[in-house]
Amino acid sequence: MSDNGSGTGFKDTDIAQYARDGYVIARGFAPATIVTRMREVALTHLAAARLPVEYEADTRYPGAPLSIDAPGGRTVRRLLQAYARDDVFRGWALSPLLAGRLVQLLGPHVELSQAHHNCIMTKNPAYSSVTNWHRDIRYWSFAKPELVSVWLALGEEHFRNGCLLFLPGSHRMEFRPGQLDAAEFLRTDLEENHVLVRTQIAAELHAGDVLFFHCRLFHAAGNNQTADTKLSVVHTYHAADNRPLPRTRSAALPDISLPQ
Ligand SMILES: O=C(O)CCC(=O)C(=O)O
């Protein structure tokens, strides 16, 4: 994995890794002051369950409370609309530091989607669920399936607190419709999928590490088996000429141009 911090751009080997594996990690990329401020804001908004949020119960994922009124039903899974929540998230999402890296992956004109991710992912120790293998593009509608999600760790992320797991290279693979279930999760009852899942890697991160991953990359995550809430900030970007399709959820909010 890459160990390419904030001082320089991605190296050619990082860009090659992104093309080959569908992800690359910039270690220690986000300044500590920003990470600290984001944690403060996120924890305040989480304690107040400041809307808009998605609850664990809304996900209907394995292990989630069965309804909003069940024990743990109002556990927040995502603080939505991060961009609109606070200057610290706006500043990060449009930062020249980040823009420089995204230009390397997407081309000279990059836009932030407010419609997808754009949230603080929270993983609560008591009531978190399991996210099965999926590609984010399944519910996104763009001219081309070429988007990059940027995942900033606000604390430690490892297997026991439910870090992201990837199937490297799966963004380049074609899948038969029969390999996926109705919600486009990878079916767990097929040997050919088991073979693939055995190639998984855990994207373990420290606070300030930033993970860039492709919207066609299969990923999953376990629940949080530790005593501490896991917090990550996630935004999604696309080339300015890769338009969201009209009248879809992807076009529901204005995209925002990154500084050049
Ligand atoms: O943190 C997790 O559980 C996974 C989140 C995820 O895969 C997603 O939102 O697409």
What would you note in describing this structure?
With 260 residues, the chain is α+β, with helices and mostly antiparallel strands. Helices cover 23% and strands 22% of the residues. It has helices spanning 12-21, 32-47, 56-59, 82-85, 87-93, 96-106, 191-197; strands at residues 23-26, 53-55, 76-80, 110-113, 119-123, 131-134, 147-153, 164-166, 201-202, 210-214, 219-221, 230-239, 256-257. The strands form two sheets. Strands 1, 2, 3, 4, 5, 7, 10, 12 and 13 form a nine-stranded antiparallel β-sheet that branches. A four-stranded antiparallel β-sheet has the order 6-11-8-9, with no helix packed on it. The relative contact order is 0.22. The model has no long low-confidence stretch (mean pLDDT 95). Residues 121, 131, 136, 162, 219, 221 line the site of 2-oxoglutaric acid.
Task: Kindly summarize this structure in a few lines.
The protein has 260 residues and is an alpha+beta fold. The chain contains seven helices and 13 strands.
**DSSP helix fraction:** 10-25%
State the separation between the terminal residues, measured CA to CA. Answer: 27 Å
Please write the string of helix (H) and strand (E) elements: HEHEHEHHHEEEEEHEEEEE
List the uncertain runs. Answer: none
Sheet of most strands = 9 strands, antiparallel
In percent, how much strand structure appears in the residues? 15-25%
- Secondary-structure class: alpha+beta
- Quickly count the helices: 7
Rg estimate, integer Å: 17 Å
Shape: globular
Bound molecule types: 2-oxoglutaric acid
User: What is the number of beta strands?
Assistant: 13
Mean pLDDT: 95
